[in-house]
Amino acid sequence: MLNLGYACERYRLLFCKFCLYPNSELLHIVFKAVIKHICYNFASFISVCDEWTEWGPCIGGCDTTGTQTRTCEIGGLEGNEENQECDTDACVCDEWPEWGPCIGDCDTSGTQTRTCESGGLVGNEDSRQCDTDACVCDEWTAWGSCIGECELPGTQTRTCESGGLEGNEDSRSCDTGDCVCDEWADWGDCIALCDDFGERERRCTSGDLLGYYDSEDCEGDPCGR
């Protein structure tokens, strides 16, 4: 195969050798024309690549005809690419990871998946049916506080932390306890006619009865005062 760079260099050296001789004007013109003819006029269709990279990977679906590419590194075609057909890998997976968790409601058929890590099926997913956990809870949280009005049935809940019921809540009735006031305001004035009995009130400022009023009988002032 013709190395264009090598040929041009040889003709250039030969031309310069003749330039040293006297009365060589005619030779000068002839060799100049020869060099121009070889090194320029034919460059477009004599271009070759002196060194190619290795062929790249075979790109295409598994078990089909793919394409691989290489690039010219040195020569007249430097930077140009060349393609050729190739046989892709078989449609098999060389390495599968462990199966993922079984996804689905408890006590039913679930699904678990894995993704091929190498081979003709790299990146593809495989799936299979699996048996989910039984509808039981292996560990519950503690019961929460009893929610509801005092002296009436309330509700408290807990959450499953592990097992087939993980994330589910359980609830039950509970006793809210007596209605108590933790702190009362002072008694108000007694509202009554003189020498008669009336009523006074106080307001709960803290506890189950917050905002409620308590009352008691009281005696009015004597008449004539």
For the sheet with most strands, the description reads: 3 strands, antiparallel
> What is the radius of gyration?
49 Å
Multimeric state of these chains?
single chain
Number of domains: 4
Low-confidence blocks of residues: 17-22
Quick one: overall form? elongated
Question: How would you characterize the overall build of this protein?
Answer:
By secondary structure, the protein is of the alpha+beta class. Helix content is 16%, strand content 38%. It has three helices and 13 strands; from the N terminus they run αααβββββββββββββ. It has helices spanning 4-19, 25-41, 43-46, and strands at 49-52, 65-75, 81-87, 93-95, 109-115, 118-119, 125-131, 137-140, 153-163, 169-175, 181-184, 197-207, 213-219. The strands form five sheets. Strands 1-2-3 form a three-stranded antiparallel sheet, with no helix packed on it. Strands 8-9-10 form a three-stranded antiparallel sheet, with no helix packed on it.
Précis, in short:
With 225 residues, this protein is α+β, with helices and mostly antiparallel strands. 16% of the residues lie in helices and 38% in strands.
